[in-house]
Design brief:
alpha+beta; 2 domains; four-stranded antiparallel β-sheet; globular
Length: 257
Amino acid sequence: MSDTNQARQKLDLYISSPQVCDYLEEKEAQNIFISPEVTVTPGIYDYLLSVGFRRSGHFAYRPHCSGCRSCISCRVDTQRFKQSKSQKRILQKNKQLTFNAVTAQFYEEHYQLYMRYQTYKHPGGSMAKFGAKEYKDFLCKAFGNNTMYETRLDGKLLAVSVTDFFANALSAVYTFFDPDYSSNSLGTYCVLKQIELAANENRQYVYLGYYIKDSNKMSYKANFRPIELLIEGEWASYDKESTLATQSASIDSPLSF
């Protein structure tokens, strides 16, 4: 049985307790998780990405909130993507930077940069309190086929991008950067480099996680057009002239997997 067929047949799930949403004020969030007893192979996770899952470390999850459908899975078709004028300017501004792969493992240099980024970007958030163990669980564990990309300027580490690879896609898992270089738009730069990498290797998609219109942390993904959103279980494409959907489904739609 192939990995995909196994995923389609049966995967045991758990649902989390309601908690404060990290992205929308006054909202509660819940996720469904693939049971930790399930061996999630790269093939299975490739399928899970296509139906709206993401991972945190080696836990695969998907939003499962009873009163909200604002988290929308999104991906870029690398064969159709067109850089905007502002994105071209960002690449030109950062042309002296290097973007190179390193083994996905714990590096003290990465961890110190991560902590600086969290203090700047998400002060008071749960991830800003991560010790080395929590950091390793979050970014150094995976389902296989993962890589880290370092962005450097004259040897100085400016950003780290955690990336998962699949036969026809890659997934941009997480990027963090040096707050002193915020004006360089390093988050956008790293996404553009991952799209370029996938296109050069004939991988069709780059998964960007969840687009959330009303979250400043997640709404930037609308800038990568055309972009595909998972709506009512089907992928729909939106070009730069299109108004993006704001919900993955109607509130009345049954929550299922």
